[in-house]
Amino acid sequence: MSIWTRISQALASLSQGEPLSTVFDHLRSPPERSVAFTIAVIALGAKMAKADGLVTRDEVTAFREVFQIEAKDEANAARVFNMARQDVAGFEEYAQRIKGLFGAIKGTPDDLLEGLFHIAVADGEYHPNEDVFLTRVAEILGMEERAFVAMRARFVPDAEADPYTVLGVTPDMDMAAIRKVWRQLVRDTHPDAMFARGVPEEAIKLAEKRLIDVNRAWEQINEAA
Asked: Which residues of 5-39 are buried (b: 16+ CB within 10 A; e: fewer)?
């Protein structure tokens, strides 16, 4: 059963007229957490689309890249997106519900924000309102500022992307400490670890870029030592 069939079933199980913002209360246990994760990224992506006032073809393509939406599943994906756009709940309420669902699972805020960053920069521009939006979502999800800055550096072309920022470390740290951070980032990016957090298989390929970036940053720091 595809994740989109499961999403359709989850939405159909809600009483008629019940807002999408309540769907997370029904999806607290594995394997349905992966359904909640997918809905969370699409719903927040729909809210983020309002931040710059435009949903571009590139952003739609970015959704497809993250979740590998096949033609037969497009209707269900569109349904989630449209329900989120029409829901009276604001993005902060969505983020709070997501925190309640995933808050105790280390690494999930990073996974969610990566999906949103991927969508935000898909049109070749990182709008200031998108930065405000993502900064606030990161705050609600409890993501450390240093981790958010590091992620932004990896996705936004004009952000400061020195290797220390990418790893979320500082030049005054000793190499043993930096290596420890790098190794933990690599472990957190392993598909098995991401599955355990409820990240659907369709979205795990985002981690490939993360792994390339953190390994390159470690190599740059190590070579300069």
From this structure: ebbbebbeeeeeeeebbebbeebeeeebbbbbbbb
Contacts with 221 (C-beta within 8 Å, 6 or more apart), sequence order: 163, 164, 167, 175, 178
Residue among 70, 59, 65 nearest 5 (CA): 70
Please tell me the distance from the alpha carbon of residue 117 to that of residue 126, in angstroms, as a whole number: 9
Residue 15 has pLDDT above 60, yes or no: no
Q: 48, 133 in Cβ contact below 8 A?
A: yes
Handedness of CA 75, 102, 45, 64 (dihedral sign): negative
Residue 209 CA to residue 212 CA, distance in Å, equals 5
Nearest CA-CA partner of 87 in 145, 51, 44, 25: 44
**pLDDT per residue as tens digits for the range 169-222:** 888 999 999 999 999 988 888 877 877 777 777 667 777 778 888 898 899 998
Would you state the structure tokens that stand for residue 48, as one six-digit string?
A: 């983020």
In sequence order, what are the residues at sequence separation of 6 or more whose Cβ sits closer than 8 angstroms to the Cβ of residue 193? 107, 187
Taking the C-alpha atoms of residue 77 and residue 203, their distance in angstroms, rounded to an integer, is 14
Q: How far apart are CA 19 and CA 42, in angstroms?
A: 15
Q: How far apart (Å, rounded) are the C-alpha atoms in residues 75 and 72? A: 7
Q: Say if residue 225 is exposed, middle or buried (CB neighbours under 10 Å; 0-12, 13-18, 19+).
A: exposed
The pTM for the full model equals 0.69
How many angstroms separate the most distant Cα atoms in the chain?
Answer: 61
